[in-house]
Task: structure prediction
Amino acid sequence: MDPLLRKSAGRYREDVVSADEEFDDFESSGPTGHDLGGGGGPRRTRAVRSRRAGPATGNASWTVRWRREWTRWRHARRRVLVAVVLLMLPVVWSYGRALTGPGSDSLQARSVEWARENHLGWAVDRVEQWWFANHQAKIGGTPNLAAGPTVETVVNATPTPTSSPAGVAAPSALPLVAGHLVPPLALASPAAVRVGNEGQWKPFGPAVNGVQGAYVTSIRPDAVHTSVLDAVIWIDPTVFSLRQYPGLKIPGSPWDRPPSVEVARQSHLVAAFSGGFRIQDSNGGMILGHRTLQHMRTGGATFVIDDNGTPNIGAWGTDVRASSTMDSARQSLDLIVIKGQPAPDLTTDANRKWGFTGPKNKSAVWRSGAGIRSDGSLVWAGGDGFTVETLAETLVRAGAVRGMQLDINQEWVQLNTYGVGSGGTVHGRRLLHGMQHTGDRWLTADTRDFIAVFTR
Result:
């Protein structure tokens, strides 16, 4: 054989043998780590090697190309996996922080809030719509009276007189004090038959200069969901003052006060309740400590508190306006009570003004709302089984001339009452058993804004 041809054939044979050696492991174990030889892998490999050690063939050339492609694919797969891991690290880190942050939010609530903060609000809205539609309050039945409102430091359990059979409220027998507001009359039940002390007020919280400034009652949301007992609170702002607080996440910094009730103020704390929708979803703005955190919307439902702790509720720009004495203003959607009547489009709105809760806001779910009476006193209503319409009707029943929906969802509807224990420690209690957070919520940092009620 020509020497040059012999030399070329020798080099090619060496290349084939080298490629066979690289592929030995693959043939004995396969690309997934399984033995391809049926127990005889090593012998088969040696036989294949001995056959391929001869002159170059077309099969050997194909094997070399195949092995090169396999190596490229394996390296490409590794690069893709590394890239995916690197891309997922910020997501995992962000979600982990959301799950382990301060506050008393549940795992579910933290996950939902994280999704909304990361541009997945559209998906959360669809899931919530489905959830509300399939987890509404029970229809019919009788309520468990023990599930009604429970308050801390009840001073006098004597209820106000019930209304007459004709539905006309009887005169109040509560003591009147000059300079303070008159407590409300008993509320008429929307159900056909009243249960227990439904609609009858009892005072809670400490008396200030001999005057009771807060009362609570239970009432059913309507004549359909008769097994549900919701709560209504009445507050006299001449006896108690109100103060808006921020949350760690909502509305976000900067602020001039902590995201919890200051320790020095806690002994004067009577009650606290959650604010409205997330600022991003509230179709409105917020002012806190005379500083605008989010621009206010003209016409938006607004909860205002002045520097003296006196509340007001109304449409921004008409009922309430910016002033030098305004400490805070919190907007949430549109008014649901206007001039002492439910807003006219509550039953026709196509889920644009008051949240995604069923066709035309008909889902009977957990909601809360607040209203202002003509005398300046404040009423709060909350619990299960409310449509936006029946929430408005309950506020009207309690005497509200203007009212707003605060929040939706069992996770966010909350009102706690507080009292000082024998050891001087302040503790709270959930107003309704179904409320999700602890009674001591807002004594430490919380994620969402809230409103606190103090003795003057």
Q: What stands out?
A: The helical segments are 3-29, 41-52, 58-100, 107-117, 121-134, 388-397. The CA atoms of residues 11 and 17 lie 10 Å apart.
